[in-house]
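In response to a reviewer's request, we include the raw inputs and outputs for one of the modeled complexes. The four entities were modeled together in a single run.
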Amino acid sequence: MTPRPAGTSAPSTAGPSTTEGTSGVHTEPASAAVRTRSQHQRRKRIVQAAAALASRGGVEAMQMRTVAERAGVALGTLYRYFPSKMDLVVAVVGEEIDLLESSIERRPPSAGTPAGRAVDILMRATRGLMREPELADALIRSLIMAEVDTPFGDRMTDLLLRVAGNGITAETATDEQFALAGSLSSVWVHELLEMLRGRRTHEQIQRRVEIAAARLLADFPVPPST
Amino acid sequence: MTPRPAGTSAPSTAGPSTTEGTSGVHTEPASAAVRTRSQHQRRKRIVQAAAALASRGGVEAMQMRTVAERAGVALGTLYRYFPSKMDLVVAVVGEEIDLLESSIERRPPSAGTPAGRAVDILMRATRGLMREPELADALIRSLIMAEVDTPFGDRMTDLLLRVAGNGITAETATDEQFALAGSLSSVWVHELLEMLRGRRTHEQIQRRVEIAAARLLADFPVPPST
DNA sequence: CGAAAAAGTAGAACAGATTCTATTATTTGT
DNA sequence: ACAAATAATAGAATCTGTTCTACTTTTTCG
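The model returned the following structure tokens for the whole complex.
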């Protein structure tokens, strides 16, 4: 699941990566205990508000002031939780990826070859993202722009490794396999970008991803049988 | 409200491309004729100023006000030539790519395999870009972000096709070869980004590009001999 | 040449992200 | 329960991209 201590509501500290380097511990006892009446899921409310706004007009519509307002917190508070707009975007993306992961758990790719399975989840992710083009655009772009680590590419690479590689994990994978899965992931991201730019159709992406996957994952382990 | 009629009469002389989609002709008589005394290479001065600033502190340092000042033009004029900061960035990039191309002409890759040649030019490009990390960062990121066509990925793909594919061109290439070259190009761009984020060393990039190229360009035509 | 068009200029104005301030809750430790 | 610490809040202020205004200088051309 989410490697993120999400539940913890410590504003500044912890957090989803964020630009902050601070890795300090925070002294927040609760995780479920309702603070006073309706206090403390501020983080969740913020992310929701942000996602909602982004689904509409993309990042532009997701203005910090507006998000704060809509989430019912002060601008300053918003900035306490998310030091920059980017951090907020990353949080929103996190949720999207969670969704994809659970979808995969629910209905794992069935193709017989590693490449086939990889294409399966990549296209599923594509469809999922494309359901909210504005949001997708905003998110993908922002992530690529991010100064620092964003869980996106890495999580996707991991997913590919696990699903396509028949149980390989970041641990057990060889350096080369890791590199290959990573390459496929970046090809996909790039195609996604092109689609957002209106230069690719769904079919074209599928074709290209298939072509790349077939080469890149050619010698990934095939599952024993079924 | 208004979609800038940009192409119209703009000083957007010829063109290192820029974001402008307008391929229209411009009514600019001169191209070399010195206007009055020192007028008209304003564009060049602007791009130079921009590049210089970007080489220092990256995009942030390349503030429109500062660029204008340094180029000795009014802010309004700067915006007449480059409707947005992005356009300016694209122009700067254009020059960088030109540099790479001429470097390749001067000393074409010598490796015997398509993959080898591809790696050669990609690493050469990497080194070239890394000479000015701030600039590279600014440029790469901006280009990826660009709403519209930017000559970057395409020009690189083309280059790869020509150089690695032993004379193949966008014309003669099969759909698949085109896709494969494109994939390699996106892998490279992604690695470059990771390097800029400080998550890759030169060697790691080389390794990963080699791994990807070996798979992706496996069945590209090999030169007759030599 | 002389007027209309095009290009420049200085600088104000606007917008949205981020920062800062002063003040008011809440929480926590004891 | 109470003082110190922490979290929030409203809102002003700052910064930088972009737009707009009012003029001045060049260029184009009949």
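As requested, we also summarize the result in words. The interface with chain A takes residues 141, 144-145, 147-149, 153, 176, 179-180, 182-183, 186-187, 189-191, 193, 197, 199, 207-208, 211-212, 215-216, 218 of chain B (CB under 8 Å). The radius of gyration of chain B is 19 Å.
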